[in-house]
């Protein structure tokens, strides 16, 4: 299968999965499931590319293992978080503002997310079709970046969950663990995860194309659907210590807090 055909397969798979989610939310009126399935679909695309690509077997197995582990760790975390919870405020607000056309617009939004997922999957495609196996030092550096990113994101998620679970923290800002050094450490490590495949693709003919994914992900989290939705005027609740936390703590890159 050619790389273009493989890309089409990945895009079609993700579109179908998210349309199924759209159909489900017609009955549940909770669009939050799209976050879970979107995360899983990215890993599925990596597995598809690894299956149909012609790169050396070791590179394709490594690609599938890293991407699937990351994807299903994130999907499982999001699934547990949304279970029994009301619809995410982002989707609830969108549904309200779209009015009678909400279902149609939601479908368009889901398909758009599928396209974004396919664009982000381009590094997987580059690795799946690279002519030569990566060197040992490239593999080791890939594993190091992936480990730091996935463990860092998982740690940040667990720390925030544990903080919120304690009754005495109700109405307070989490400034413990990694959250002491970044207001959004989970977003930072999520962006770092995409650097994994930039490293793994070193030496590939289309290596430069892998640079787009970490840049796009960082831009989305910093400027579009991440930090702005949480720290925007509507989302920024008056939690105890919020203003001081914003003043002293890095928004993205973990860094010692200002005095």
H/I helix tally: 12
Biggest beta-sheet profile = none
Total domain count:
2
Mean pLDDT: 92
* Count of distinct strands: 0
Low-confidence blocks of residues: none
Rg value = 19 Å
- Report the portion of residues in β strands: under 5%
Structural class given helices, strands, pairing?
mainly alpha
Helix content: 55-70%
Please trace the helix and strand order, writing H or E for each element: HHHHHHHHHHHH
User: Could you say which overall geometry the principal axes of the C-alpha atoms support?
Assistant: globular
- Separation of termini? 57 Å
What would you say this structure looks like, in words?
The chain is globular and about 55 Å long. The mean pLDDT is 92. It is an all-alpha fold. It has 2 domains: 1-130, no CATH class; 134-259, no CATH class. It is built from 12 helices and no strands. It has helices at residues 3-28, 33-52, 57-82, 89-98, 102-120, 122-128, 136-165, 185-193, 195-200, 212-224, 227-231, 242-248. Helix 1 packs antiparallel against helix 2, helix 1 (3-28) packs antiparallel against helix 5 and helix 2 (33-52) packs antiparallel against helix 3.
Secondary structure: elements and pairs:
Layout: H1 3-28, H2 33-52, H3 57-82, H4 89-98, H5 102-120, H6 122-128, H7 136-165, H8 185-193, H9 195-200, H10 212-224, H11 227-231, H12 242-248
């Amino acid at each position: 299968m050619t790389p273009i055909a493989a890309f089409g397969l990945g895009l079609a798979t993700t579109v179908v999965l998210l349309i199924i989610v759209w159909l489900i939310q017609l009955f549940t009126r909770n669009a939050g499931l799209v976050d879970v399935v979107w995360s899983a679909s990215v890993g599925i695309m990596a597995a598809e590319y690894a299956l149909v690509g012609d790169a050396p077997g070791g590179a394709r197995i490594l690609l599938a293992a890293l991407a699937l582990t990351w994807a299903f760790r994130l999907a499982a975390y999001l699934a547990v978080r949304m279970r029994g919870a009301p619809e995410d405020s982002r989707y609830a607000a969108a549904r309200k503002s779209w009015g009678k056309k909400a279902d149609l617009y939601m479908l368009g939004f889901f398909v758009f997310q599928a396209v974004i997922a396919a664009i982000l999957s381009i590094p997987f495609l580059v690795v799946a079709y690279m002519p030569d196996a990566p060197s040992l030092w490239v593999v080791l550096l890939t594993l190091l970046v992936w480990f730091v990113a996935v463990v860092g994101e998982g740690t940040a998620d667990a720390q925030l969950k544990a903080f919120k679970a304690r009754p005495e923290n109700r109405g307070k800002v989490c400034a413990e663990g990694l959250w002491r050094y970044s207001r959004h450490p989970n977003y930072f490590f999520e962006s770092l995860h995409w650097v994994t495949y930039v490293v793994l693709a070193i030496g590939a003919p289309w290596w430069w194309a892998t640079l787009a994914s970490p840049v796009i992900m960082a831009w989305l989290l910093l400027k579009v659907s991440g930090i702005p939705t949480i720290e925007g005027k509507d989302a920024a609740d008056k939690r105890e210590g919020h203003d001081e936390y914003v003043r002293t703590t890095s928004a993205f890159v973990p860094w010692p807090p200002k005095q």
